[in-house]
Amino acid sequence: MMRRWGMSTTLIHDQHASERKTGAVAQPIVPAVAYSFGNLEAAADTVAGKRDGIYYGRYGNSTLRALEEKMAVLEHGEAALCVGSGMAAISTALFSVLQNGDHLIVTKDVYGGTYHFLTTLAARCGITYSLVDCTNVENIVEAMQPNTKAVYIETPSNPMLTILDIEAIAQVTKHYQIPLIADNTFMSPYLQKPLDLGVDIVIHSATKYLNGHGDVVAGAIVANAERIQFMRQQIMGDLGQVLSAWDAFLILRGMKTLSVRMERHCSNAEQIAAFLEAHPMVDKVYYPGLQSHPQYEIAQKHMNGMGGIVSFEVKGGGEAAKSFLDALQLAMISFSLGDPETLVQHPATMTHSSIPEAEREAAGITDGLIRLSAGLEDIEDILEDLTQAFEQVNHTERSAYAWAK
Ligand SMILES: Cc1ncc(COP(=O)(O)O)c(C=O)c1O
């Protein structure tokens, strides 16, 4: 038997290539919506799921299937479903395990869009949830209700970079015989494989590191074949969340360089975190690679690299954060992350603005908090940009002080 390839090789090649008709090295884009069959029995068996195949574009296309096969291999899962956005992946995964009357336990500092889904659409469907501090597994046990049907985590979390002990949480969910769902967006399969740690369903916003070039919105779900089949047939098809062949191609192309990109994102982020930790205008830095991070040990155990996201709190609160962000010249103010460009954002007024102030503050998302996604630029240029922006804040504060006197 052939040795299992390393991650970088797997990202570039297909060990189980299903499509070798043309000999093309790059993945062919197949935009066909209609697929034909040699006879009626083949068509009927395919639609019934008795025979593998694609029959209509709303349930997938062959470029998308190539991406799904790759995602399953990379995450060490049985099967994958790729959809039109990270939120489509999250809602599909949650709707696959929850229905009217069910309850969900959710890690407390979850992505703002997930929170919005739980408080609006899921609530309309009669699904309830509890936000729980999952850094202590006892809290999860205490929050269990007779109708709790799943636990949903995000580690590292957005934007606080909280790290959860996936293995310990998986022991609890296995005991209660309910699925554990993990958002692995911040890590990508290159840095963390939640299924190996006991998770049942992994989701990604493929918009971020997987595609890596800021030009596609997409999502991915990896789980066992039965669950994926249910999501494809019963949820994605009905809600119409399919990803186009063109976008699937772009993600496959982007993923070829995932390993080299992640190495650079990590090394830039590490240096930015060290710079910020030593800066007199910074109150706190949240980065799992810093020894000051409360879950440093767990991060070392579960993650093959500490990721490209650094969050930090500037001294002077919201006003100082605003002056700092406005003064940046290289880093761009943007909602996304995981792109070649260094991107910064203000969670309190941008990604997490839908969370009420009290809940936001309780989760540590203060007005002075900034999230930075380290890009692939030369580190010296990023650090110089941060330095000059801090000097601008200093200057603004000094002018305000002189004026007030
Ligand atoms: C951790 C995390 N999960 C999910 C999403 C949603 O992804 P998308 O924007 O592709 O729907 C995001 C978006 O920022 C995210 O940061």
From TrEMBL:
Q: What keywords would UniProt list here?
A: Pyridoxal phosphate
**What is the required cofactor set for this protein?**
pyridoxal 5'-phosphate
InterPro entries recorded for this chain? Cys/Met-Metab_PyrdxlP-dep_enz, Cys_met_metab_PP, PyrdxlP-dep_Trfase, PyrdxlP-dep_Trfase_major, PyrdxlP-dep_Trfase_small
Q: Which residues form a coiled coil?
A: none
Q: Which PROSITE patterns match?
A: CYS_MET_METAB_PP (PS00868)
**Source organism's superkingdom?**
Bacteria
Q: What CDD domains has UniProt attached to this entry?
A: CGS_like
Q: Does the keyword Iron apply?
A: no
Please report which protein family the annotation says this sequence is part of.
Belongs to the trans-sulfuration enzymes family.
Q: Can you name this protein?
A: Trans-sulfuration enzyme family protein
Species, as recorded? Sporosarcina soli
